[in-house]
């Protein structure tokens, strides 16, 4: 097993030396009172006289082989013959993969591993090893009290091919470290800084350059078989998991199980239990890694009733099945067709283990082997240490699966209302399962058919007109500011003053569609650069102050004054937020009446849509009474929103009014989720008629009148037939008794709209209390 000297970078040069051990022998020689011990030590020391390198140190590894017998005699006290078949022990060159002077047990382990096997420390990279070496210098030379106990392991296969794991204990009593001329002696502050930056290899190499120190001596390695413990640790990071950045299974899982159970020919299978559908499911990403012989046969052979009964029974009796030798099974069992599945797949020993949590089945595992006796009660006992880890892994997988499904819904669709999320989830789950199996799956469109729609809007009245007038106020104020500033500047500003006069006249007398855009361009390209220039040259403090105050009023995005329109936008935002919050809060009660799809939009006011039907909530009994209850809820809610608005509108920066409308539509419609817009929309030409009516009602008038059908302080209900009129008069009567509506119901006809005739309306005033 002798190899070339360890070539990796280190902060010291390494010399093989037995000086410190020979010093121990010298001490025994002159201080031990037992004569036989003294004679024994003297003979050892005498034998080393012709090999001065043992004391002075050497780097020629071949000398170890040439003097193998001498070194064996020299180290006999450290390697007792009586323990040579029990201990796994060897001498070693520090920080190398070179070992020598093995115990018999260590020799046999290396022999079983094969001629081409080379010992290497697992899972430690070059930088980590370099810093580890530096820490030894801190301990040995600088006497720093630090712990450098990085766990070190050898992975060595046995003769059956099972990877065994051995923890390494290093005795470095016979090593010593010296500085050279190239060594740097850091201060205590520097040493503390280094220990605070354990991952900064450049910093460590700055103060501990390569081969700037000397290490002389040898170490003693003692190995302990900890295969089960290491395998359990590896299982923690190798259990089923999802990494969408790298959809590849961890194929080491089977090898880890082989090490853990010490079964060289082992197959592992796992299926997850789908509680909703009461069935077992494969883990797609691991289909080519796991071997589900028994579980495959079970789910493909028994009918659904038997499977469901079995799953129910598992809640009461979840004991695993362990068969050491299938040939010892009862003769009656051997006659069953299920026995053939074992022989057909060369299964001679197996374990089938249900994984339970809180008396609920999460998954079922199977371990199979062609070798008789591979599994028994003792192997099952080892599962006790593994069960909690498996539960954690399955829970983590379930959480990650749900998280990724939600992410797919959010990415591919949008934030979906709870009433319809189940259908999106079903589709996303199919997409997710296909992606794990590296299969292509095209997401299907989500649609719901035969729904009854409810539409309502609380519209802020005359907001466009108000915005236009406030825009004029802002721009006129801005022109006035500019004129005052430019009048105080030199003659360079005369052309700007003329241009401002033209715009002022145009704004107040003959405004055009592009007036505002041309004014912005004049500001952005000419006036504002001119004023900025004045700030950068010698200008009077008065003018500079005026310019700075002017720019403080300018909205950077538009180059325009925004003060008056800001008050309007703030007022609209306050109204929208208040109305939307009330509507959302009331929606909680509406969903309790019957779950339905709900959406609302904020613009200059708040509008909402409700879609009710069996296809959205297939698990509940749906009747026309549901629609009547929700229509009454809608009218009552809009009345409360109007009354609340009346109580807070006096506090708005700009006085506003709202007018509310409900549109009653009896025909069933379909809605479809539009992937391009990430929202639901009515589906098909026939259903679009409903949307057209909604849009044209916004500014519709009473027939043969210039008066709008909506009015502030009143609720307007638009409908087609007398049946709806009767229905809503009953709702109005209820609200009149509660003092919410007044007794002034108006019966109106709506003007003929393009392609729409025969619309009727009820209009009633809200209580003034």
Describe this structure in words.
This is GAF domain-containing protein. This protein has 769 residues and is α+β, with helices and mostly antiparallel strands. It has 26 helices and 24 strands. The strands form five sheets. Strands 14, 17, 18, 19, 20, 21, 22, 23 and 24 form a nine-stranded mixed beta sheet that branches. A five-stranded antiparallel beta sheet has the order 3-2-8-5-4. A five-stranded antiparallel beta sheet has the order 10-9-13-12-11, with helices on both faces. Strand 15 (554-555) and strand 16 form a beta hairpin.
Distance between the termini: 100 Å
- Fraction of residues in H or I helices: 40-55%
Tell me the number of strands: 24
What's the structural domain tally?
Answer: 4
Evaluate the radius of gyration: 43 Å
Question: Based on the structure, what is the oligomeric state of the protein chains?
Answer: single chain
Strand content: 15-25%
Largest sheet: 9 strands, mixed
Indicate the low-confidence ranges by residue numbers.
1-5
How many individual helices?
A: 26
Shape: flat
Label the structural class.
alpha+beta
The pLDDT mean sits at 85
Compact description:
The protein is an alpha+beta fold. It folds into 4 domains: 12-222, no CATH class; 229-382, Beta-Lactamase, CATH 3.30.450; 463-561; 567-766, 2-Layer Sandwich (Alpha-Beta Plaits).
């Amino acid at each position: 097993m002798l190899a070339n000297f360890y070539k990796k970078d280190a902060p010291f040069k390494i010399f093989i030396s037995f000086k410190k051990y020979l010093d121990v022998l010298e001490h025994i020689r002159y201080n031990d009172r037992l004569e036989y011990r003294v004679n024994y030590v003297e003979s050892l020391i005498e034998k080393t006289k012709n090999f001065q390198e043992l004391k002075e140190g050497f780097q020629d590894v071949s000398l170890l082989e040439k003097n193998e017998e001498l070194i064996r005699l020299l180290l006999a006290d450290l390697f007792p013959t009586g323990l040579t078949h029990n201990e796994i022990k060897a001498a070693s060159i520090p920080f190398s993969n070179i070992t020598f002077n093995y115990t018999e047990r260590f020799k046999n382990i290396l022999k079983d591993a094969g001629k081409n096997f080379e010992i290497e420390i697992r899972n430690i990279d070059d930088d980590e090893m370099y810093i580890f070496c530096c820490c030894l210098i801190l301990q040995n030379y600088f006497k720093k009290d630090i712990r450098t106990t990085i766990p070190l392991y050898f992975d060595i296969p046995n003769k059956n091919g099972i990877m065994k794991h051995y923890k390494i204990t290093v005795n470095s009593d016979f090593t010593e470290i010296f500085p050279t001329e190239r060594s740097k002696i850091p201060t205590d502050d520097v040493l503390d800084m280094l220990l605070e930056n354990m991952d900064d290899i450049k910093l460590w190499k700055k103060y501990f350059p390569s081969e700037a120190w000397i290490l002389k001596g040898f170490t003693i390695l003692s190995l302990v078989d900890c295969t089960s413990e290491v395998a359990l640790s590896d299982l923690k990071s190798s259990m089923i998991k999802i990494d969408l950045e790298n959809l590849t299974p961890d194929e080491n899982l089977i090898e880890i199980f082989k090490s853990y159970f010490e079964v060289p020919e082992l197959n592992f299978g796992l299926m997850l239990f789908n509680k909703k559908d009461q069935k077992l499911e494969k883990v797609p990403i691991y289909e080519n890694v796991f071997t589900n012989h028994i579980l495959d046969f079970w789910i493909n052979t028994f009918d659904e009733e038997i499977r469901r009964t079995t799953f129910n029974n598992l809640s009461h009796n979840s004991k695993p099945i362990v068969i050491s030798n299938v040939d010892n099974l009862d003769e009656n069992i051997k006659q069953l067709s299920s026995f053939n599945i074992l022989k057909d797949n060369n299964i001679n020993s197996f374990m089938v283990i249900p994984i339970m949590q809180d008396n609920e089945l999460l998954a079922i595992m199977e371990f199979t082997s062609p070798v008789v006796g591979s599994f028994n009660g003792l192997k099952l006992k080892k599962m006790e240490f593994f069960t909690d880890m498996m539960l954690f892994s399955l829970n983590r997988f379930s959480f990650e699966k749900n998280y990724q499904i939600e992410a797919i819904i959010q990415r591919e669709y949008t934030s979906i209302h709870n009433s319809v999320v189940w259908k999106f989830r079903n589709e996303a789950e199919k997409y997710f399962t296909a992606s794990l199996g590296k299969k292509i799956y095209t997401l299907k469109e989500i649609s719901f058919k035969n729904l009854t729609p409810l539409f309502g809007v609380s519209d802020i009245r005359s907001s466009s007109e108000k915005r236009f007038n406030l825009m004029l106020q802002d721009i006129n104020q801005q022109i006035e500011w500019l004129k005052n500033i430019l009048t105080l500047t030199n003659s360079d500003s005369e052309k700007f003053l003329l241009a401002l006069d033209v715009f002022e006249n145009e704004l107040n007398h003959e405004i055009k569609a592009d007036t505002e855009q041309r004014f912005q361009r004049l500001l952005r390209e000419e006036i504002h650069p001119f004023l900025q220039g004045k700030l950068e040259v010698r200008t009077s403090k008065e003018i500079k102050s005026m310019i700075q105050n002017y720019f403080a009023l300018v909205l950077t995005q538009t180059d325009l004054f925004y003060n008056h329109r800001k008050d309007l936008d703030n007022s609209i935002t306050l109204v929208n937020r208040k109305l939307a919050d009330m509507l959302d809060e009331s929606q909680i009660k509406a969903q309790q009446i019957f779950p339905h799809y709900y959406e609302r939009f904020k613009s200059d006011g708040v509008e909402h849509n409700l879609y009710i039907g069996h296809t959205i909530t297939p698990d509940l009994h749906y009747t026309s009474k549901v629609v009547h209850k929700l229509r009454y809820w809608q009218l009552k809610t809009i009345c409360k929103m109007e009354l609340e608005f009346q109580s807070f509108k006096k506090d708005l920066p700009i006085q506003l009014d709202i007018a509310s409308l409900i549109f009653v539509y009896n025909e069933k419609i379909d809605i479809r989720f539009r992937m391009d817009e990430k929202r639901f929309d009515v589906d098909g030409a026939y259903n679009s008629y409903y949307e057209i009516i909604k849009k044209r009602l916004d500014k519709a008038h009473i027939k043969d009148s210039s008066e709008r059908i909506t009015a502030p302080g009143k609720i307007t209900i638009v409908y087609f037939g007398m049946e709806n009129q009767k229905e809503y008069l009953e709702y109005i009567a209820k609200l009149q008794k509660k003092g919410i509506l007044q007794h002034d119901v108006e019966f109106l006809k709506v003007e003929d709209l393009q392609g729409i005739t025969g619309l009727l309306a009820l209009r009633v005033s809200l209580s003034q209390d």
